[in-house]
Design a protein that fits this description.
By secondary structure, this protein is an all-alpha fold. It has eight helices and two strands; from the N terminus they run H-E-E-H-H-H-H-H-H-H.
């Protein structure tokens, strides 16, 4: 019988054992206020010492020892190792990650969604900073670009490159919102939604470029 108990429960257990004429060999080690271990064996012939004598002698740290014994040792903190050193010591090197995986359409569109979001945020910050801190305002710099007398195809190309992040982030952001609502989460729906969104992005991008 192995148990963790308080002093009252321990005394009740010993009384019950003595009343049933059973003889126990115990080794009791106490870490106040808990008794950590009690070991009991079947009764032996008369003349052997009973539970009471053994328990009494064991309670003050003397007397015979039972077959179950607990040794208490002071806690020693383990040597600190960082994550990489511990994994290398266990022969568990870090996975090569992206270098071993083929690119997939969901992963690539998700990465582009984040890149275009950063570009769109940069545009917004530059426009607001120009409005606040440029002495002549944004309009004067637009007029300066127009005075460069760029060709029509070059202007169209600049507009397409500038508007592509906005268009892409807008339409694929709608797809992310649909995912958050619990729809289009199967792999078939994810892959089938890519083509229509790319078409919508291209159409809107060229539409605003020719304005």
């Amino acid at each position: 019988m192995l148990s963790l108990m308080n002093g009252r429960s321990y005394r009740l257990l010993l009384k019950k054992i003595l009343d049933s004429n059973r003889v126990c060999h115990t080794n009791v080690q106490v870490c106040p206020p808990l008794v950590t271990k009690v070991a009991c064996q079947p009764s032996k012939p008369a003349g052997d010492s009973g539970c009471g004598a053994v328990a009494q002698s064991g309670s003050d740290g003397s007397g015979s020892k039972g077959k179950h014994q607990i040794t208490f040792k002071p806690y020693v903190a383990p040597c600190y190792k960082d994550h990489d050193a511990k994994n290398m010591g266990l022969k568990r090197p870090m996975s090569p990650h992206l270098t071993i995986y083929a690119p997939t359409m969901p992963a690539m569109t998700s990465i582009l969604q984040r890149i275009t979001g950063i570009i769109a945020t940069f545009y917004a910050c530059m426009l607001s900073a120009g409005t606040l801190f440029l002495s002549n305002g944004v309009e004067s710099y637009v007029s300066m670009i127009q005075s460069l007398d760029l060709s029509r195809p070059m202007i169209l190309l600049i507009k397409v490159l500038a508007g592509a992040p906005f268009a892409y982030h807008y339409f694929f952001g709608i797809r992310f919102c649909i995912w958050n609502s619990g729809r289009w989460l199967t792999l078939k729906d994810v892959n089938s939604s890519v083509k229509p969104l790319f078409i919508a992005t291209a159409v809107s991008m060229f539409f605003f470029a020719i304005l």
